[in-house]
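Working notes for the structural subgroup meeting. M.R. asked for a predicted model of this chain before we commit to crystallization trials. I am recording the input and output together here so anyone reviewing the notebook later can reproduce the run.

Input as submitted:
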Amino acid sequence: MSTHDERVSWRLADWAAGVSPRDMPTRIRMRANTCLMDTIGVAIAGARSGAAGLARAVCLDGAAQGWSTAFGADQQVSAQAAAFINGTAAHALDFDDNCYAGFVHGSAVVAPAALAVGQKMNGMGADAITAFIVGVECEYAVGAATMNVLYDRGWWTTGVLGPIGSSMAAARLLGLDAARTHAALGLAVVNASGMKSCFGSDAKALMAGRASELGIVCAELAARGASGPEHPFSDRNGFINLFNEGRFDDSGFAALGEKWHMESPGVDIKRIPVCLSSHAAVDVALELVAMHNLRVSEIQSIVCDVPSIVRANLKYDTPRTPREAQFSMPFALASSLLFQSLSLSLLNDETLEDQALHALMARITMMSGPMWDSPDMHRSAPEGAEVRIQMRDGSIFEAFRDKALGSAAHPLSAEQLSDKFLACVAPVLGDRCAGILLSDIKQLDGPMLLRDIFRDADFGVLT
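Returned structure, recorded in token form:
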């Protein structure tokens, strides 16, 4: 089905500007709080990355003082600069969440924008939660309407759709009416871009940061009277025709505020810091090894039967850099099996030089078998995997998993989520500060001022 009407952009803007926090169920606000907690954690860890350091260097060169926190900076900066820096950091380790409504990383783009503009406006944590929900729900609604055509064509949905989410979150915090919100949306849509050729390079993380920044810029321009196109989606030279082959199913827009994309298809929170396309296969392999007490040194071969999109995303069979390793099925599987846990500490050049790792990676392959010809399989297991392990003695063990641990279907526990946050933040800020920050973020949906949330954190230690 492919339908769309000319007023599709107005439906988004009207809802974004008019929805009341009281109309957002407690369970959805709790999910939003969890997403913000996870994103802040991975962003603080990611602030140490090279890409985040480059974003900071560019933004802090002659930067004026502002009200917004930039992870790794020893001064407050403008909301736009903070969103660029923190959005880059949030995606730099590929440890941030994902949503199948468009195959998009929503939180890494929208959360930095909501926090930065919320600080600028001296808003409360509850304001950021509301704006975050507005931003991601608008972004995911557009993502779902693309029916994955956008992603399959080679566009990186986070770069293309991210400015939609960040602009709507920023517009909400700036208090824009529906007309000004629509202008911000139009500006965001016509300025957006992103290509999947960025995978395995700094460009991917930097693009997430730019998408977060762009949304704020568009909202600020709209607040000052800038106009955007009246029909940014349906114009002959608009989003639908140029990005999505003329196809767009906006039937779900009528359910904004009634059905929540954060709930269905839900948000997947990563357990390990590599591309989500590898996670289901990693889970299967670890389960087989544990269940059958297999010796990793005796593995002859591992074959992963996966959807074609997984093969396309994980394009580095022999990764040369940590960034390439995050998009490598052989690395994800081999490192998980050899070291029992694929942690952030393994994403370095020393690990990539390990000879045992290289030997095992060489015995791991991917394929896409006939079972993936079924549309039902693509819907139920978009990045699923059937893993077949053959041992040197000829014995074979195999199993299938539709979705990874940490996905909306198999969520991490509250304890696992807290442990992930502390594992990301404590090495950067210390155990005491990490614990205080975690406690504060868990209570974010309340009267705490956003300017106070990072009060105990010394991010200048990274500069």
